[in-house]
Every structure is written in C-alpha cells, then in structure tokens.
Amino acid sequence: MIRFIDVTEETFDKVYEKMTSAFPYEERRDSLDQKKCFDNRYFNFFEITENESAVGFVSPWVFPDFVYIEHLAIDEDKRSGGYGTKTIEHIKELYNKPIILEAEAPVTEQQIKRIKFYERLGFKVNDYDYMQPSYHGGEGVPLMILSYPEYLSQNQFDLFLSETRREVYKIK
Question: Which residue, 59, 103, 127, 145, has fewest beta-carbon neighbours within 10 Å?
C-alpha cells in the first residue's frame, strides 16, 4: 500500500531533484519559488512511498471545489509498477472531489501513453484551449486539460483558470 509523506525541509532537495529530472524547466518552478509554495494553504507536496521506500512524488493543490495535480512523477526505475495508478486512486479516495491536471498533447509515444493512462483511470480530455502560464516569465506552455470524473463545464473550467492563476501561478 502506498503512503503520502509530507515533503519537509530535510527531504525537499532530494524530491526537488526528482522534479528537475521528470519535468522540463518550462513546466516547473526553480527551487526557491517551489519552497515558497509551502506558504499557500492549498498546496501539498508529498513523497510517495511503499514499504518505506520512495517511489515518486505528487503535488496536489486542494481547492474547495476541486483538486489540481500540478506535478506527479514516479521514479524512472519504478515506472510500470502500478504506482501511478495507486497514486491517482489514493488521491481520489483522500479528497473525494473532482480532479484536474494538465498534460502535453499526445504527439510522442510517451505523451500518447500518458494520455491513455489517465483515460484508463477515468479522466476526460477536455476540449478547451489552454496555455499553462510560464513559471519563469515569457510565453507559456500549450497543454491539455484532463478532468475526473467528468468533463468540465465552462463554469468549472473558468473556476479552474481563476483559482490556479491566482494561487498557483500568482497572476493577478
């Protein structure tokens, strides 16, 4: 059974190093800005463990009406071991509210597998044009919006945009 362990000051550098190898620069904050997220009441940062062994990390933002999974990565040597599925199922049980996440358009084989993975878990690929705001200034990253358990209504999508822009990306 997997567990979510809070990332602490002592474990931050190790987990952040995993983030830098799992996500390109455009899709993550620098270390100092990532640490500032701990001051936000909606932010959570967990190391995913099983049998006391780290297998990855996840950073869900738990808003009143939905959970936004900003980052989720399973350690490279642990992939295809069911940990991604277990993590999503644990989030579903833990928060019991709609889940929203971003993913790259399915162009490469890995991106196609990622979208199919989320669809198998009940996520819907929404048909909204979406540009993830830049973490470092400049142009954002075009991504797709996936939601569980249903497609997002226009109102839900607008709420997602306003909440994440204000809290996650610090856009006023």
Answer: 127
**Mean pLDDT, contiguous 10-residue spans, the chain (172 residues):** 95 97 93 97 97 96 98 93 96 97 92 95 97 90 96 98 96 84
- CATH classification of 2-168, choosing from 3.90.550.10, 3.40.50.2300, 3.40.630.30, 3.40.50.1000? 3.40.630.30
Contact of 45 with 59, CB cutoff 8 Å = yes
- Binning the chain into helix, strand and coil, the percentages to the nearest 5 are 40, 25, 35
SS3 state of residue 121? coil
- Is the bond into 64 cis (omega within 30 degrees of 0)? no
Report field, pTM of the whole predicted structure over 0.70: yes
